[in-house]
Specification:
globular, two-stranded antiparallel ribbon, 0% helix
């Protein structure tokens, strides 16, 4: 699926596309995800829209709370 992400509040650094880590360990996130390497970083905040292509590794970091976003998945 393609993800359309609308940032509703807060801000974060959005990274994609990158390469997902194949090694599990201390680089894993508290939410159970894996950190990614490479790719491009973009600061996103309220009102921004991000398009995530199918199967594109992505992540958020440097999150400013409350960070809320709406994801719309399209086939």
């Amino acid at each position: 699926w393609t993800g359309v992400v609308v940032i509703m509040s807060g801000a974060a650094t959005f990274i994609t596309p990158g390469a997902a880590s194949t090694v599990r360990g201390p680089r894993d996130t508290p939410e159970g995800g894996s950190l990614i390497g490479g790719g491009e970083s973009h600061r996103v905040s309220k009102g921004d829209v991000v398009i995530i292509p199918p199967n594109a590794p992505h992540m958020y970091k440097n999150i400013e709370e409350p960070f809320r976003y709406l994801v719309i998945q399209t086939p």
